[in-house]
């Protein structure tokens, strides 16, 4: 998936305002701010300090219950010690340019194209019932299919004060896009996200309802109405730019836009009637934790979290997928950080990895296809066994049918999946904190075949998962060091009469951060110091071999490094600002190479390099 976020005209800027760990949560209604001197009870051990220190005058600090959820790491992160560079210094960061990333623009074919503007400057204001746009999307008559590419372009505008918000787009009841919004400055920002929706081509071939949800509450000092424009562009296929293969049918799960998974015992089941000539099937899961689980990887074990008012459940999460009551696969979520997360000055103007285009995790159900073509309804069930609060999961089935046969048959030949991941925990707890380590692993192998017009096709999916998380917590100084990594290695072998194709995909999601909430010194009033630093990466490698000969490889390394500081003394914000950088490098065996480095300070890009080597 390729995404680019480009700035569109930085306007004049006004006074800065401080916001700590704002939340992209569609289920949240109105917000209670510390500006009105109300702190949620579940903030935990830090709440008494904040009640005493934060006042309503001038700039303010907004704190949601995620302070407790993040086990204090979302309060702030100390950049200097972690990243080796000092946070930005010198006065307030009042202005910041429109958001952008180093990711490459989507490659668009030079063929005839037609654009459909689905939504034009729709004012998302949930406080007056405008959190959802509903319309109809029809393919343009002037550009009939097939299409070489289909691209969604979303442009947003917001000014004033506002939280980061979650954006979802459904076409024909299936989710096709998920994103979060940046937080504005007083005079406003504009941002643009482009999203490749070609794999959902069957949804776009006929008139379908389209739904855009962006629950954005405009209450009191949160004045920012978000204006959104959505355009869909269809690029016609030619001999030089043919239409790529895509699913014949995309099935969205009913109520996926409103169902939430509350707690580890919550299981949601959907009944599906599959095509009887099915050959392949994939389940897409748009995964987002909320409230205590928005930053699940910063949660502590229950025995420590409970007495200290923090978020429990530990740091490990997975989503389990069952077919007809039997575990069929799992998905491990990507550790998203949104533009209000940790410290908002970290993400101005460069967001964290994938914050503006949140790709789904994919579970390959192809080995089960032979058991699903019997014409009977089957159930797909989802569960988050370690759910610490609640999760939103958008789900789509991408189904491929035989082009010739009306009926395919087959069977599941082997399945090796443990009911739970192997987990180990370590705690070294002292009087004022402790060190918490979490390790988890999984290995699964599933195989099955389908007899199709192409002959017997056998698919084997083997996955190896690894999880490591360590948190060093000192409640005296509200200090936490966190290191986190997930690794997922997937090997898919497809065997036919003429040979075998093996596709290996290896992914890693490392994060390093350090958090600190500096308490007042003797005699200081209304004082706090919030340094912050985050390193986050997405590393992905893919190889494809045919009969043992490598035919393709690709590599991606997208890394963001950010530090920020917010200081307040005697009711006045005395220092706020940040430094941010992104290094995006992608290459493959065709000779393609894209390598871009961005560096920003105090809200503006200071260096933008397009490098010749990857």
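^ structure tokens above, recovered residues below v
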């Amino acid at each position: 998936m390729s995404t680019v976020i480009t700035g569109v005209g930085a306007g004049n800027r006004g006074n800065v305002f401080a916001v700590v760990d704002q939340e992209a949560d569609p289920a949240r209604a109105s917000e209670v701010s510390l500006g009105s001197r109300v702190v949620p009870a579940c903030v935990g051990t830090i709440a008494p300090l904040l009640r005493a220190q934060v006042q309503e005058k001038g700039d303010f600090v907004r704190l949601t219950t995620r302070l407790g959820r993040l086990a204090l790491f979302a309060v702030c992160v100390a950049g200097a010690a972690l990243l080796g560079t000092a946070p930005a210094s010198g006065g307030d960061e009042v202005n910041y340019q429109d958001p952008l990333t180093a990711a490459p623009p989507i490659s668009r074919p030079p063929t005839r194209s037609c654009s459909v503007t689905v939504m034009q400057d729709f004012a998302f204001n949930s406080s007056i019932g405008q959190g959802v746009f509903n319309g109809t999307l029809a393919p343009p008559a002037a550009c009939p299919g097939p299409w070489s590419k289909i691209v969604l372009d979303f442009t947003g505008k917001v000014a004033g004060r506002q939280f980061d918000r979650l954006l979802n787009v459904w076409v024909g009841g299936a989710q096709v896009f998920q994103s979060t919004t940046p937080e504005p400055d007083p005079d406003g920002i504009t941002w643009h996200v482009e999203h490749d929706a070609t794999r959902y081509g069957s949804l776009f071939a006929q008139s379908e309802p389209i739904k855009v949800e962006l629950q954005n509450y405009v209450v009191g000092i949160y004045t920012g109405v978000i204006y959104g424009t959505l355009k869909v562009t269809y690029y016609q296929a030619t001999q030089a730019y043919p239409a790529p293969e895509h699913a014949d049918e995309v099935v969205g799960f009913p109520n996926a836009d409103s169902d939430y998974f509350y707690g580890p015992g919550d299981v949601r089941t959907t009944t599906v009637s599959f095509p009887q000539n099915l050959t392949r099937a994939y389940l897409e899961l748009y995964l987002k934790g909320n409230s205590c689980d928005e930053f699940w990887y910063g949660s502590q074990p229950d025995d420590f979290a409970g007495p200290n008012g923090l978020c429990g459940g530990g740091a490990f999460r997975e989503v389990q997928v069952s077919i007809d009551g039997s575990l069929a696969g799992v998905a491990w979520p990507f550790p998203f950080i949104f533009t209000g997360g940790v410290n908002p000055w970290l993400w101005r103007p460069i967001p964290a990895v994938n914050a503006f285009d949140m790709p789904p995790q994919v579970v390959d159900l192809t080995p089960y296809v032979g058991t699903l073509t019997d014409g009977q309804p089957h159930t797909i069930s989802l569960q988050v066994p370690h759910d610490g609060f609640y999760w939103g999961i958008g789900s789509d089935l991408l189904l491929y049918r035989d082009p010739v046969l009306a009926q395919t048959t087959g069977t599941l030949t082997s399945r090796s999946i443990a009911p739970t991941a192997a987990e180990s925990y370590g705690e070294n707890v002292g009087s004022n904190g402790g060190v918490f380590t979490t390790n988890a692993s999984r290995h699964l192998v599933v195989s099955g075949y389908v007899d199709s017009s192409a002959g017997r096709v056998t698919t084997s999916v083997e996955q190896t998962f690894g999880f490591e998380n360590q948190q060093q917590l000192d409640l005296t100084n509200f200090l936490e060091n966190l290191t986190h990594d997930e690794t997922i290695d997937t090997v898919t072998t497809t065997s036919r009469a003429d040979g075998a194709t093996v596709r290996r995909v290896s992914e890693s999601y490392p994060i390093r951060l350090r958090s600190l909430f500096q308490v007042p010194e003797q005699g200081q009033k209304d004082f706090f110091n919030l340094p912050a630093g985050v390193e986050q990466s997405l590393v992905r490698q893919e190889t494809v071999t045919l009969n043992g000969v490598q035919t393709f490889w690709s590599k991606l390394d997208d890394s963001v490094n950010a530090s920020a500081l917010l200081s307040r003394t005697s009711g006045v914000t005395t220092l706020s600002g940040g430094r941010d950088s992104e290094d995006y490098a992608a290459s493959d065996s065709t000779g393609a190479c894209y390598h871009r480095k961005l560096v920003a300070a105090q809200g503006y890009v200071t260096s933008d390099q397009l490098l010749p080597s990857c």
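The chain has four helices and 30 strands.
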